[in-house]
Amino acid sequence: MKNPSRRLHKSITMKPILTPLFLPVFLHIITVHVAGDTSPIYTPVDDITVQCGFSGHQLNTEDNRTWTGDINSKFSPLENQAAGRSSTYRQAPSSSPVNQLPYSTARLSLYEFTYEFPVTSGQKFVRLYFNPVSYGPDFDPSNALFSVTAGGFTLLEDFNASVTADAFGLDTIYREFCLNVESDESLNIAFTPTRATQDTYAFINGIEIVSMPNNLYYTSAENSDGVNYVGSDNTFRIENSTALEMVYRFNVGGRSLVFIQDTGMYRNWDGGQKENKYLDDLSYKFSVLPENSSIELNFTDIAEYSAPEELYHTGRSMGLNKTINKSYNLTWEFPVDPKFLYLVRLHFCEFEPKITKARDRQFQIFIANQTAEQLADIIEWSGGNGRPIYKDYVVFMPAGPGSQKKVSLFLALQANPKDFMTNYNDAILNGLEIFKLSDTNRNLAGPNPDPPLLITPRVIAPPQSRKFSNKSSTSLIAIIAGLVSGVLVLGSVLGFFLVFRRGRKNKDSSSNQGMKWDPFSFPATHRTYGPSYLCRYFTLAEIKAATRNFDDSFIIGVGGFGNVYKGCIDDGATLVAIKRLKSESSQGAHEFKTEIELLSQFRHRHLVSLIGYCKDGNEMVLVYDYMSRGTLDSHLYHTDNPLFLGISVSKFVSALQ
Ligand SMILES: *[C@@H]1O[C@H](CO)[C@@H](O)[C@H](O)[C@H]1NC(C)=O
Ligand SMILES: *[C@@H]1O[C@H](CO)[C@@H](O)[C@H](O)[C@H]1NC(C)=O
Ligand SMILES: *[C@@H]1O[C@H](CO)[C@@H](O)[C@H](O)[C@H]1NC(C)=O
Ligand SMILES: *[C@@H]1O[C@H](CO)[C@@H](O)[C@H](O)[C@H]1NC(C)=O
Ligand SMILES: *[C@@H]1O[C@H](CO)[C@@H](O)[C@H](O)[C@H]1NC(C)=O
Ligand SMILES: *[C@@H]1O[C@H](CO)[C@@H](O)[C@H](O)[C@H]1NC(C)=O
Ligand SMILES: *[C@@H]1O[C@H](CO)[C@@H](O)[C@H](O)[C@H]1NC(C)=O
Ligand SMILES: *[C@@H]1O[C@H](CO)[C@@H](O)[C@H](O)[C@H]1NC(C)=O
Ligand SMILES: *[C@@H]1O[C@H](CO)[C@@H](O)[C@H](O)[C@H]1NC(C)=O
C-alpha cells in the first residue's frame, strides 16, 4: 500500500449519518418485521385488554387488539360508593414522558377498588401497566403506595411505582404474572392503598389478561418427573396453587423480540444490549453470537408456541479458541429478590452445521453456583440439529449477607475441559426465562428498590471495561438525550419508530423486572443514563496502542469525517476497525454521539456492530467489530441495502481487506 489514503479516498465516502442515506437501513428493517408477521401459532381463549380511567374503545394498530375503557363498561371496578369511597379517573398530564394508551389515563383511589374479570378457567398471564406521573395536585406520584392482589395471591405489596421506575431508569412500569383460575367464574384484581398518610393512593393504567397454553410453565399432572430442583436430588412441581412473576426473559444472543413477534401470548423477549449487560466481563469479551436464520426447525420435543422461532436461530457461545473457551465460564448475573424460589428455563437449539451428533458439544451448567447439569448435550436431549428444546430448573435464593434487597442469581455454562469427551469445548444458550414463584403465603411481592443513587454501583453500572469515564459523561449524556429525542421525532415522522423503540428501550435500567416493550409508549424524552453500559469505553492509551499512535500505515480508509484504522485490542486477540473523527466540526461531534447511541443498540445483519468508543479531550474514536467476518461478509450479499451509516458497506469491507 503505497498511498493508502489516496487510493481509499475514492472508495469510501463518509456522510453525516442523519442524511436520507441513513433511512433505507431502517425502512428495510421495518419491512422485515412486517413480512415476518405470520398468523400466531397460539390463539388465547381469553384476551382482555383494559385501559383504566378511559371511556370507550381504542384500537392498537400494531396487533389489532382493542383496549376497552373501564368507565361505564363491563370492566368498571367495584368500590364502596355508598360510603363515599369512590375511585376517580384522570388523564396523564401532557408533560408525561409517555402518553400513549394504556399509559395515557389512570384510575386512582384513596380506597380499595376491585376489578372483576369474566374469564374461563385455566392458566393466565396477568399484565399490569403503571405510569407514575402526577395526576393533579391531589395525586402526586410520591404518594402512590399500594398493594395488588389477584386470585388470592399478593402480586405487589406497598408498591412504590415512582421509586421503582426511577431505580430502573424507566418512565413506566410493567409487570407480568402467571396464575391459574380454578373455576369458570371470574378473576378479581384488587388495588389497596397502604395506609401510610391521608394522601396515599392506589392507581393503575392498564390491565391485560391473556390465556396461556395449559402447562406451558406449570407442571402437568401427567409429568411424573417434575422439575429439576437445583442443589438437591429432588424434583419440584409447579402446581396450580403457585403464581409466577416473570423477572427476566431473553432472546439470548439475538435481538429483542416484541409482543407482536411472540407466538400469540404477547410476551416480550429482550435481546441485544439488554442481555449483554448481565454478562460478566470475560463472557462479554469472548463470547460469540452464532446465527442461522435459514435453518428449518423441527419441533419434535416441545410445542411450537414455546418461544418465537427466531429465538432458536440465534444464540451465544464461547468463542473461537479452545484455550480461551476452557479458561472461562459463560456467565450471566441476575439481581433477584432473596428468599424466593425461581424457575429458570433455558432454551436450546443446535443449528450450527458442525454440531450434529451427541457428544459434539457437551458442557456443564451451573445455576446459583450449584451444578444443574453435569453433562448437557443438546443433541442428545433434542434428537438432532435444528430441534428446539428447553430445560427447566427450580432454585431457591437465600438471603444474602446483611440486609441487601437483591441477591445475584448466577447462570454459568462451562465448556467440557476434557477433549476426549466432546468434539467442541464449547457451550451455547439460545433463550432464557426466569420466574419468581409465590411463597407459602401466596406472596410474590418483594421490597421496593432504593432510589437510584443508593443502588450499589455493581448493580447499576456495567462491568469495568464498559464503563464510561466520569469526566465527559454528564455533558455527553445530556447531548445524547437531546439527540435521541430528535431522532425519535424524526423516526415517528418517517415511520421507523418500531425499530427505534426497540433500540431505545435497551437503555432501560440496570436490573430486573419486566421491561416490556410497552406497546404504546412511543417516544418523548426518556430518562437517559447515557451509553455507559451500552458499549465499551476505551482509553485513549488503548486506542493509541492499537493503532501505534494512529500510524498512517494502519489507515484503511479516509473520509470527510476522519480516518479509519485497522487495529488490535485485548493484547492482539481482537481485530477492530477504528474510526477517528475529526474534532473541529460540531457536525463531527454530533455524528459521534449519535452513532454511539444508535449502533450500540443494534445487532442486525445490516449493521456492522459497534464495540466501543473513546472520548478524551478532542479525540473522538469509534471502534467497530472487524473480527466477525461472517457479519461483514453478509453485507456483501445484501446489495439491496448497501448503506451502512453513509459508508458503502461492500466498499468498507473491501477496504478492510
Ligand atoms: C390489522 O387489521 C388490518 C385490517 O384487517 C390488516 O390489514 C392488518 O394486517 C392487521 N394487522 C395485524 C398486525 O394483524
Ligand atoms: C391445573 O389446572 C388446569 C386448568 O386450569 C388443569 O388442566 C390442570 O390439570 C391442573 N394441573 C394439575 C396438576 O392439577
Ligand atoms: C416512594 O419513594 C420515594 C423515593 O424513595 C419517596 O420519596 C416517597 O415518599 C415514596 N412514597 C411513599 C408513599 O412512601
Ligand atoms: C443453516 O442450517 C442449514 C440446515 O442445517 C445449513 O444447510 C446451512 O449451511 C446453515 N447455515 C449456516 C450459515 O450455518
Ligand atoms: C421432524 O422429526 C421427526 C421425528 O424424527 C421426523 O419424523 C420428521 O420427518 C421431521 N420433520 C422434518 C420436517 O424434518
Ligand atoms: C488461543 O488463545 C491463547 C491464549 O490467549 C493463545 O495463546 C493461542 O495462540 C490462541 N490460539 C489460536 C489458535 O488463536
Ligand atoms: C466455572 O464455574 C464452576 C462452578 O462455579 C467452577 O467450579 C469452575 O472453576 C469455573 N470454571 C472456570 C474456568 O472459571
Ligand atoms: C458464584 O459464582 C460466581 C461466578 O459464577 C462468582 O462470581 C461468585 O463469587 C460465586 N458466589 C459464591 C457465593 O460462591
Ligand atoms: C470454542 O467455542 C466455539 C464456539 O463458540 C467453537 O466454534 C469452537 O470450536 C470452540 N473451540 C474448540 C477448539 O472446541
UniProtKB/TrEMBL annotation:
Quote the subcellular location field of this record: Membrane
The signal peptide stretch is 1-36
Q: Which GO terms describe its cellular component?
A: membrane
InterPro entries per the record?
A: ANXUR1/2-like, Kinase-like_dom_sf, Malectin-like_Carb-bd_dom, Prot_kinase_dom, Protein_kinase_ATP_BS, Ser-Thr/Tyr_kinase_cat_dom
Q: Transmembrane ranges?
A: 476-500
Care to name a GO molecular-function term for this sequence? ATP binding
Record's superkingdom?
Eukaryota
Name of the protein in its database record: Protein kinase domain-containing protein
